[in-house]
Amino acid sequence: MTTVVGVVVFPGSNCEQDVVGALGEVGIEGRLVWHKDNSLGNIDAVVLPGGFAHGDYLRTGAMARFSPIMTAVTKFAHQGGPVVGICNGFQILTEAQLLPGALHKNKGLKFLCQPSSLQVKSNNSVLTRHLAVGTELQVPINHFEGNYLCSPQTLCDLQATDSIVLTYTDNPNGSTADIAGISNANGNVVGLMPHPERAAHALLGSTDGARLLKGLNSDG
Amino acid sequence: MNKDASQDLVQYCIHVEVALRDGIADPEGQTIQQALLSLGFVEVTEVRVAKNLRLTIQAANAASALQQVEAMCERLLTNPVIEEAFIQVVDSRGEQ
After folding, report:
1. What strands, in cross-sheet order, belong to the sheet with B50-59?
2. Is A42 exposed, middle or buried (0-12, 13-18, 19+ CB in 10 A)?
3. Which residues on chain B are in Cβ contact (under 8 Å) with A144?
4. What does pTM read for this prediction?
5. Overall domain count for chain B
6. What are phi and psi of A49, to 5 degrees?
7. H helix intervals, chain B
8. Which CATH number belongs to the domain containing residue B28 in this structure?
9. In whole numbers, what is the pLDDT of chain A averaged over residues?
10. Is A149 part of the contact surface with chain B (CB cutoff 8 Å)?
């Protein structure tokens, strides 16, 4: 059976088609789900894609958290279902308290749209489960609010539960502990600022994003 | 007979300042400070940027208005990881 991933579309999302295309590259069917829907349907995993959900008004992810579909996403996550938030999706997951911390404006106040070098810090996550710790990946970033902040206690908790999934090798945005992506303790909810869907085809200069997305394939 | 509850409500204007918590870096404020310094305003030692929301709400009294706005701050208006709110009732109209 082909793995089916629900890709949630909020008003202002703009990476959903890229995510569906990239999932196709790794043999996964991406299915768009409208934010006003109350049900995810019969899916194996969820991706909250990048963009500017609800215009990023008030704060990034602040309004999206209250979209009707988020009740189903939260329930799915609590039941152990794989949920991945990319960029704006990561911001939404922190606002929804499915992941700790917050994404603050980049240090230096620059919008960053560039390749980034990442290191896999944990393979206890749905995205990195096929990758060895220490693996280096090239995946682009594209954000203004990607500076991961959390309390010292939260950082200790993340470290203790092996929940720091990806770090930048050259911290471009001021993130605490070079964090580019984290998971919950169970590893089924992952948020990351880099865009794996933009590194899923050789034509785009890197296929490392596909190596991450392959983790969502429930067949292996 | 039920009395129309809306008859007893008063309109309050409330200012909510949503500011970054102390210790959270404010790159926007730092950039503005640098701009001021480059213009010769060398006396500026720090700039912090905050959002000001102006709410008009109906409530039975000022205490109730404040309580409602505190709930709004907790639920939506602030992210407690990095922000805090300063609430001020600046005006009330419709009092008898």
Report:
1. B50-59, B10-20, B83-93
2. exposed
3. none
4. 0.91
5. 1
6. -80, 175
7. 27-38, 62-72
8. 3.30.1280.10
9. 96
10. yes
